[in-house]
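DATA SHEET
Item: assembly model
Revision: 1
Owner: S.N.
Input lines:
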Amino acid sequence: MCGIIGYIGHQEAQNILLDGLHRLEYRGYDSAGIVVMHEGELALRKKAGRVPELSQLVAERPVTGTLGIGHTRWATHGEVNDANSHPHFGGEGEVCLVHNGVIENYTSLRDALQEKGYEFKTETDSEAVAHLLAYEYREQLGKNGSVADATSCLNALQATLKQLKGTYGLVVLFRDVPNTMFVARVGSPLVIGIGNKEHFVASDAGPLLGHTDEVVYLSDNELAVITADDLKIVHRDTGAIDPKVQIIEQSDGNADLGDYEHYMLKEIYEQPRAVENALRGRFNDDEATAVFGGLNMTAQQLRRIDRIVLTACGTSWHAGLVGEYLLEEFARVPTEVEYASELRYRNPPMSENTMIFAITQSGETADTLAAMRECKRKGHPTLAICNVVGSTIAREADGGIYLHAGPEIGVASTKAFTSQVTVLTLLALFFGRMRHLSYPAGKRIIRGLQSIPELMEQTLKCHEMVKYVAEKYSEKNNFLYLGRLYNFPVALEGALKLKEISYIHAEGYPAAEMKHGPLALVDKNTPSVFVVPKCGIYPKVISNLEEVKARKGPVIAIACHGDEKIAELADDVIYVPDVEEYLQPLITSIPLQLLSYHIALLRNCNVDRPRNLAKSVTVE
Ligand code: M6R
């Protein structure tokens, strides 16, 4: 949520900043802006709208200079307009900053600063930080005989941070100290790239690729003082610390669109490869189990686990619900999936041997991070199932499993969902084989998982039929998504996909729950999408479907090839390959992703950047 970029070195900052913002735009796209230090002045260009619009503005009014900061905004405080766009200035322009996060006490700070005569020009919480910093800076200059140097700036920053409540990733420039950039973090990610006589700062490593592979991830309560040649890191409480330099992979997937029109479509089509990557090297055929390199627990410790709590948000929560069913079915370990936003403030009883998995594509979701930290604080082994390497959750977890799905850029999560479900299936196999699951059953699961990439390829052939269905129903304003057992989470996920990218109201329900209320919604204008592949309770789901038909509700069925009966009952059928029940979410979710994609296109919605949303939700 909000993308931050900074550059100091020997190259023109403007293009590096714009390119970085372009790569960070998935974090927020309400407005964008840059400031470049130019002949002792801070030259500002900012604008409501997307990064290409800012690029246009900069092309018309270029800024030269080799030090600058930039920001792409997801609005939290204050509407989307030019003034509320970052960067923000403090005092009389002597301080300038970009901020990601939420300052919870900004109103009291603003009131106090206004009393001191500071004039606020925006509705943002961030401007309070800028003015407070200017105030503290002036205090430092007063103490220091008006010498504007990096020490005064650092002292001012430290004094400011002590007064902030909330979360922040901050990059700050001081007009009178023209060759230094200041950085601080609590709760919002920041990574520093080390180049040759140059440094970069960004919200994630994406913008650094192609510039450098040496990075330092800033941790909470750390500050950095950065010049072209030097990087100093200071911990708020313990003072200077040695930067821990890590090497990032330069070719971690392909973030280009290639021949696809949208990232979402590209990522839907990447699913067979993503699942292959999630499975690679993770089978032990001889022992009919799964292998994980990063759990960091002994077999004895793992054997003692008597409860698993999965915690996540949004699509990752839906994957977690599939995980709950799988872990209870195969490993017989009581499992629960908790919304991270609830778990962080709840206090559910957890036995000593409860193990936590935070499931997250980005590894930066604020609620998931907070829930994970809360469980860690209580002493539970806390692991991550995560896609983004080096993300905060991946780094703070006691261990974990990477998805290896490659970058997911579309705001609507697709390949991360199926990769998460794949990893959770492996996990259920792993825990199962430590407990009750037989060797032949383990072998069967392995064979089933190995068949998935090819079956996904076959599933993608339903694309033309999905297009036809999308055209038929794209003008409807309410949809129901229904499934049972492993396909109930799929129904929830299908409804979320439709809501988020086409702005159509959609509800996911267990099909049998319809008669307890939602059936009242059914009429000829409310299509129901039934996920009804072959399964042990197929006849029961068919009865639920008939209940909808009896009330004149149009029915779109996702069913298995060869199911002729369904064609007589449903208005439209999208056929997919038949797989064992526990593998069905990996297949049945694909037509639902494609359906939401096409309906959104037909309604002229921005598929990759839906309104009001951002890819990585780093605020509470
Ligand atoms: O990065 P995370 O997996 O932690 O993100 C969690 C949700 O914000 C995310 O899945 C969201 O629901 C997606 N936009 C849904 O497509």
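QC remark: The CA atoms of residues 467 and 598 lie 6 Å apart.
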